[in-house]
Design goal:
This protein has 3 helices and 5 strands, in the order H-E-H-E-E-H-E-E. Helix 1 packs parallel to helix 2 and helix 2 packs antiparallel against helix 3. With about 120 residues, it is of the alpha+beta class. The longest helix has 17 residues. The protein has a 5-stranded mixed sheet, covered by helices on one side.
Length: about 120
């Protein structure tokens, strides 16, 4: 049995297509480039955790490449806050693996999570 390659940032379009409404959007800015495999996988998982918690609602996912970090931002409407809080805990664990940071804003009916994953050159 062949193993599939680990998911990467390049697979996020397909993830959104499988899990969300047609109003969901992915934007990528900066200079997309190949990143260490662990960063690529963590970035994918961070988005996966959050879009799963915001299931069946439109989400906006932004990926920004810069010289020092990969920034991942996910915004959406919150159904059950407990699912989002559990997803945020998993996001924090992933970011911690890379000495990254996570900023969370939960307001009435909405969530915005921004994760920064440092990258080397």
């Amino acid at each position: 049995m062949a193993l599939a390659p680990a998911p990467t940032v390049a697979h996020l379009d397909a993830l959104l297509a499988r899990h969300h409404s047609p109003q969901s959007r992915l934007t990528v800015s900066g200079d997309p480039r190949s990143l260490p495999a662990t960063v690529e996988l963590s970035a994918y998982r961070i988005v996966e955790y959050l879009v799963t918690a915001l299931a069946d609602r439109p989400v906006q996912v932004s990926i920004r490449f810069d010289d020092e970090a990969l920034e991942i931002q996910v915004q959406g409407t919150v159904g059950r806050g407990s699912e989002v809080r559990a997803a945020v805990a998993r996001v924090r664990e992933r970011a911690k693996l890379h000495a990254g940071s996570v900023d969370v804003k939960l307001a009435r009916g909405s969530a915005r999570v921004v994760a920064q994953l440092p990258v080397l050159g």
